[in-house]
Specification:
The chain is an alpha/beta fold. The protein has 16 helices and 19 strands. It has a 7-stranded mixed β-sheet. Strands 9-2-1-13-19 form a 5-stranded parallel β-sheet, covered by helices on one side. It is globular, with a radius of gyration of 22 Å. It binds flavin-adenine dinucleotide (FAD). Flavin-adenine dinucleotide binds next to helix 1, strand 14, helix 15 and helix 16.
Length: 491
């Protein structure tokens, strides 16, 4: 059977690996010149930057994905001992380590939390994570036989632990005494582009990855995730076509016939779209009635990123650093209600060269400086971004007690319009739909088409949602669905 995959993000590469394992003949089409979707690198001057994701959790998922096709594959990564350094406007700095006990100790010593209560919270999130993951992340919510299995009943047995009536913020507020601790835990909503004041408390399970396990960093940078998956797929016969945009999914009646691209027409039995689900319908399936209700849900946030090569090193900073807004709620209102860049933004600074020293010349650092941004609704981005740049420099300079601007040696900028243009992210949104309501998990598009036989979907804009691990899970769900739909395929 021949499969055409639209796009080459991690969801596509994981699909290519999974489907090759099933014995399918796979071709991947990527409109850009590089394979990897948003997980690509760029050299700017003497500095190397990962252009998209920087927070890497569940590294074993990548390792196991590679091993599933070739058991000899090893994926090397650093496990970070610090989860993040937090800087507050009043001058307080808190370094949060990784590991439940150590995190609880720091929350007690630095922020006055009850150590045992903090540990209990993190233990509860670990238990919630373990029961929720097999039900909401690893399977299709849209197939009866996936859902009605043992893990569902286990998850239901802890139903009252999930805070179903609460938002992330209200559960965090109830669990911690210091508003700064609440803000640290609230931030995890941004991991899928949502607001902690709207997202359901269930998403607090991200604490398991951020604090209990802690983030990792691939040896050689984030780009190794897609590079290794690409190399492995290539070695196993997957065909890659770059600079080739898919223009249409070809149908006969309600069945897949193939793909029309900027360079030709190809026959396929199956198609997996890794393109943003909104644009898959809008641009590639113009004659098909889209599932409007799912697609009209609020979009996840976008981002403005400054890639700065810094001509000195900063001992106060670690791999991941956050400079918080004083009024976090006002920042999320700006993001999702007024759709503006907030005047006192929370700034994330990622410096891979702290560990991957080859990423910057000796004594210098590669700063990935990111601010969450609203989706593109026609704001005056050119002016807004210049104003934001000034605000970021002023805020970081104040916090680091040094004017940082003279040290910016090279610069490049990414922003919502470019995210839309380069990666086809609808209005620059990074994760498709936001998780800004209690039903959001059920309001993501399924991993298969209910109308068109042979059409499947993988990536962060469909179920189970945002982030690298979820994109890999989406591919694994696609593989399972294809196996169920075509039982003759090998295991
Ligand atoms: C600035 C930024 C920071 C992020 N930080 C993190 C993070 O720290 N951790 C994390 O887990 N996630 C993060 N993300 C989200 C992350 O990018 C995703 O988790 C993941 O990389 C998305 O993978 P994907 O498979 O959905 O596809 P994408 O990476 O979005 O790739 C889709 C690909 O499809 C191609 N394509 C689209 N339409 C067509 C067409 N018609 N024909 C051919 N090709 C097409 C696009 O060019 C693109 O290459 C971040 C994203 C951004 C932008």
């Amino acid at each position: 059977m021949k499969v055409g995959i639209i796009g080459s993000g991690i969801g596509a590469l994981a699909s290519a690996i999974e489907l090759t394992r099933l014995g399918l003949d796979v071709t991947v089409f990527e409109s850009n010149d590089q394979i990897g979707g948003k997980i690509v690198e760029q050299r700017i001057g003497d500095f190397r930057f990962d252009m998209g994701p920087s927070v890497f959790t569940e590294p074993l998922l990548v390792q196991n994905l590679l091993k599933s096709l070739d058991p000899e594959q090893e994926f090397a990564f650093h496990l970070l001992t610090e989860s993040c350094r937090y800087f507050f406007n009043d001058g307080q700095k808190v370094l949060i380590p990784t590991g439940k006990e150590r995190v609880a100790q720091v929350l007690h010593a630095e922020l006055g939390e009850d150590e045992l209560a903090a540990q209990r919270f993190l233990t509860k999130m670990e238990a919630n994570y373990k029961t929720i993951y097999p039900v909401f992340i690893q399977i299709s919510l849209h197939r009866f036989k996936h859902l009605f299995a043992k893990p569902l009943f286990k998850a239901l047995s802890r139903l009252f632990q999930y805070g179903l009536h609460q938002t992330m913020h209200s559960q965090n507020q109830q669990s911690f005494v210091n508003p700064k601790t609440v803000q640290i835990f609230d931030r995890l909503a941004t991991y899928n582009g949502s607001s902690p004041y709207l997202a359901p408390a269930m998403l607090n399970i991200i604490s398991q990855l951020e604090f209990n396990d802690g983030p990792a960093l691939p040896v050689g940078g984030m780009v190794q995730i897609t590079r290794r998956a690409h190399q492995l797929a290539l070695a196993h016969g997957v065909k890659f076509k770059t600079n080739e945009r898919v223009l249409e999914i070809l149908l006969q009646k309600q069945s897949i016939q193939g793909l029309k691209t900027s360079k030709g027409t190809y026959a396929f039995d199956l198609v997996v779209s890794n393109m943003d689900i909104h644009y898959t319908y809008e641009r590639l399936l113009p004659t098909i009635k889209p599932p409007r209700f799912l697609l009209k849900q609020e979009k996840s946030s976008s981002a403005v990123v400054f890639y700065w090569g810094m001509a000195r090193s900063f001992d106060q900073l670690g791999v991941h650093n956050i400079f918080f807004a004083a009024d976090y709620q006002a920042e999320f209102k700006a993001l999702f209600e007024t759709k503006t860049l907030y005047s006192d933004p929370t700034i994330y600074v990622h410096i891979s060269s702290k560990i991957e020293t080859a990423d910057a010349p000796a004594g210098k650092e590669n700063w990935f400086v990111m601010v969450n941004a609203p989706i593109n609704v026609g704001q005056d981005w050119d002016n807004e971004i210049q104003l934001l740049r000034k605000r970021i420099i002023a805020k970081l300079s104040k916090s680091l007690a040094l004017d940082i601007e003279p040290f910016i040696e090279v610069e490049q900028i990414n922003e919502p319009r470019l995210i839309d243009e380069r990666y086809s992210g609808k209005q620059g949104s990074i994760y498709g739909n936001a998780s800004n309501n209690v039903f959001s998990a059920f309001l993501r598009h399924p991993n298969f088409s209910k109308k068109l036989k042979g059409l499947y979907f993988a990536g962060v804009t469909v179920h189970p949602g945002g982030g690298i691990p979820l994109a890999i899970n989406s591919a694994q769900i696609v593989a399972r669905c294809i196996q169920e739909d075509f039982p003759s395929l090998q295991k």
